[in-house]
């Protein structure tokens, strides 16, 4: 259990309008100018011939658009096998609450304790929560409320931001543009983020895709992504210490990162025991920073049991993804997790996926215990891994092994790979 003294200020669940929240935040701190487009390859990769065929098929699938808030019972494509949707254990996951503020306040004993907590968690299931992160409660609340305001729009308005098949950015209802069965009971809005450019990338996305009325909420997410980028680099310093690798190796690797922000909305479900909000999967990215509301629903598979992760007021959930598992030469784990839904309450969460620049070569350090062990995975670029998971494979615990085989046959062939059973 976490004592009240360890917890950050609670994030209230009550909604406010995105525009009012944005106005107050912008008065407090002007947004820094940044840019929308990334150099090729960007997070929305250009389509190859097989990809264009998949996109055409995706357009047909997208004709079946689900308005989940209006479904009286779950349609057949949303029904999951019992093995995937079986109930969770009553025992919560043992997730340490790590104070990352010790990286800045000179507390050497606290720093050693934090590194040990992270090492133990990441070697077993890859999940921990962080406090002392410096992300303001007002900003976090405004970002959650902005998601609520978007997802409550009429479906036709949300469809203006519809994701193009084969890409990452945009709105989707239940991933029906990618899959025909085992659909998740959720809606998502995803967009890219990087800094150091000439105009604000997230503001440009919202205003350019949804119109000038959405510029204010775009500024909220611009600031939120900037804070997530800073926090992710702080966490990289802690991961360096926990693994005993050269200081700066991981932080420098992600300094020019091009990440993905995803807003998740899980409507109340008439038959929650038959479906999932997000199916069992591992994140192919490097690191995920998750802000949950107070409803809960995240579960992690450990020793054959699904273990709930209880929301801690003011804390953020961190989990290791496949890319960092490769960067740690397999020492830190990317584990299966899922999200469940309920019959009475909607649930919101914000996931910031830290990704390397697309052309960066993912390779563990040569020094220390990580470098001394035999290599588990070959060198690869994030662009190739993203293409693989977006177009050929539903990410699970075998993603890196399947990806390694795909690389050995030459990704230029873009031969389809049998899909795994997760979302």
UniProtKB/TrEMBL annotation:
Span list, region Disordered: 1-24
Catalytic activity entry: gibberellin A12 + 2 2-oxoglutarate + 3 O2 + H(+) = gibberellin A9 + 2 succinate + 3 CO2 + 2 H2O; gibberellin A53 + 2 2-oxoglutarate + 3 O2 + H(+) = gibberellin A20 + 2 succinate + 3 CO2 + 2 H2O
Keywords: Iron, Metal-binding, Oxidoreductase
PROSITE patterns: FE2OG_OXY
A molecular function (GO) term: dioxygenase activity
A Gene Ontology biological process term: gibberellin biosynthetic process
Domain Fe2OG dioxygenase: 256-356
Requisite cofactors: L-ascorbate
Compositionally biased intervals (Polar residues): 1-18
TM regions (residue ranges): none
Similarity field: Belongs to the iron/ascorbate-dependent oxidoreductase family.
Protein name: Fe2OG dioxygenase domain-containing protein
